[in-house]
Design brief:
The protein has 324 residues and is an alpha/beta fold. It has helices at 12-23, 76-81, 83-104, 137-156, 190-198, 226-239, 258-269, 293-299, 308-321; strands at 3-7, 27-32, 47-50, 66-69, 108-114, 159-165, 167-169, 172-173, 179-180, 205-208, 220-221, 223-225, 245-250, 256-257, 275-278, 287-288. The protein is globular and about 55 Å long.
């Protein structure tokens, strides 16, 4: 049994990873300020400490085997409008965390990164060797933390893995009977927004552009089930090596278009979904799909739930269970 600190463990991905760790027999402490996470997201059996990632020094000691770092501000639009918040929370907070780890003698880190570090891709599928040129502050701050981690590995022997993922969806039903899923305020992700249209909570779902160079003219994105994502984090803990910073993309390797997502929601829910076409959004690439070849090789990771309908069905069931 190992002992882990999960920063941001009351959020969507963090809660599912914390649950997987507990189910594997480990000890888990969740550090979260609940600014975007939810107390209900803290899994049963985890110790909960309410605080910011900058408070990690008050929690960490030599008894911890590793940190899994999810705490971050993550809204692209907000990052453009309020960049200072993102540099403060994401970069300065991560610096404080890494410093606290070094002082406590905790020498292993798994970092929740993002495909936003790549910006507009020059080719797809996107490999880890692709040029990094983020087009927003959110992506820039995540890339800065990756550079911070690389320096810490080289200078102080940290063992670290950064996992860059694309669109995360679905929900996970734990062995305790609690289901953990996606809830954001405000919501900005496509599948939950389509659910809102299916439930009559919004008049329609907007499709931004139908003239992209894709089979149906709408943007294509790589969707990964949140439980598959959690599997990768546990594998990353085993793969981390002292003095090395391993960076892996996570994705299905085959994307789904906006239209395909809407049709999947129609099939799963059996509901009509009004659609309204809108103008393209500036900076929206036609296709964003990951190459996960390095994760397959270095982590031994394979997505076990790659089908879009399965991802949507799990997310829909969570939505119905948690309707206000």
């Amino acid at each position: 049994m190992s002992k882990y600190l999960v920063t941001g463990g009351a959020g969507y991905v963090g809660s599912v990873v914390a649950t997987h760790l507990l189910e594997a027999g480990h000890q888990v402490t969740v550090l979260d300020d609940l600014s975007t996470g939810f107390l209900a997201g803290v899994p049963q059996g985890a110790e909960f400490v309410r605080g910011r990632v900058q408070d990690a020094a008050e929690v960490l000691d030599h008894s911890f085997d590793a940190v899994l770092h999810f705490a971050a501000s993550s809204q692209v639009g907000e990052s453009v409008a309020d960049p200072e918040k993102y540099w403060r929370n994401n970069v300065a907070g991560s610096l404080e965390l890494v410093s606290a780890m070094r002082k406590a003698g905790v020498r292993k880190l798994v970092f929740s990164s993002t495909a936003a570090v790549y910006g507009e891709p020059e080719s797809v599928p996107i490999a880890e060797t692709a040029r990094t040129a983020p087009t927003n502050t959110y992506g820039a701050t995540k890339l800065a933390v990756d550079h911070l981690i690389s320096g810490e590995c080289a200078a102080h022997g940290l063992a670290a893995v950064s996992l860059r993922y694309f669109n995360v969806a679905g929900a996970y039903g734990s062995s305790s009977g609690v289901t953990f899923g996606e809830r954001h305020e405000p919501e900005s992700h496509l599948i939950p927004l389509v659910f809102q249209a299916a439930l009559g909570q919004r008049p329609h779902i907007a499709v931004y552009g139908e003239d992209y160079p894709t089979p149906d003219g709408t943007c294509i994105r790589d969707y990964i089930h949140v439980a598959d994502l959690a599997d990768a984090h546990l594998l990353a803990l085993d793969a981390a090596k002292a003095g090395e910073h391993l960076i892996c993309n996570l994705g299905n390797g085959a994307g789904f278009s906006v239209r395909e997502v809407i049709e999947s929601v129609r099939r799963v829910t059996g509901r009509e979904i009004p659609v309204q076409t809108a103008e393209r959004r500036p900076g929206d690439p036609a296709v964003l799909v990951a190459s996960a070849a390095r994760a397959h090789q270095a982590l031994g990771w394979q997505p076990r739930r790659p089908e879009l309908d399965d991802i949507v069905r799990d997310a829909w069931n969570f939505t119905l269970e948690n309707r206000a």
